[in-house]
Amino acid sequence: MSRTLQEIQKDEPESRVLRDLVSVLQAKLELRSRYSLLEYDAAEEGRTDWSELFRSLSHSERAQIDSLCAVLASHLAARPRRAPTEGRSEVDGSGHVKFQVQP
């Protein structure tokens, strides 16, 4: 089963902390999607130190995204009505996170 972040939010509208987690994850995904362009632009202007900074920030952001996805996947796996034992996430080409939960 594959679901978008919006579908996950709609599934539990009363959970403020889930909305917050999804909101943070969406913001980080959007920001990370921009780092490659920022890195490229900095390199084009000869600002190698800035380019390296954007590359480093992108790697740090990826680690934070992975942590958020792990928490969300764990939450989805623990839900009684789905009762999956395993879950994983991936980001598709358009920047949407898809969670696959397997029973």
Total number of distinct structural domains: 1
Overall shape: elongated
What is the number of strand segments? Answer: 3
Rounded to the nearest angstrom, the radius of gyration is 16 Å
Assign a percent range to the helix content: 55-70%
Class from secondary-structure proportions: alpha+beta
Could you describe the largest sheet, including whether it forms a barrel? 3 strands, antiparallel
- Uncertain stretches of 5 or more adjacent residues: none
Which key phrases capture this entry?
single chain; 103 residues; alpha+beta; 3 helices
Explained architecture:
By secondary structure, the protein is an alpha+beta fold. It has one domain (2-102). Helices cover 65% and strands 14% of the residues. The chain has three helices and three strands. It has helices at residues 5-11, 16-44, 48-78; strands at residues 2-3, 86-91, 97-102. A three-stranded antiparallel sheet has the order 1-3-2. A hairpin with a 5-residue loop joins strand 2 and strand 3 (97-102). It is elongated. The mean pLDDT is 81.
Task: Summarize this entry quickly.
It is built from three helices and three strands, in the order βαααββ. With 103 residues, the chain is α+β, with helices and mostly antiparallel strands.
Write the layout of secondary structure elements.
Elements: E1 2-3, H1 5-11, H2 16-44, H3 48-78, E2 86-91, E3 97-102
Antiparallel strand pairs: 1-3, 2-3
Helix pairs in contact: 1-2, 2-3
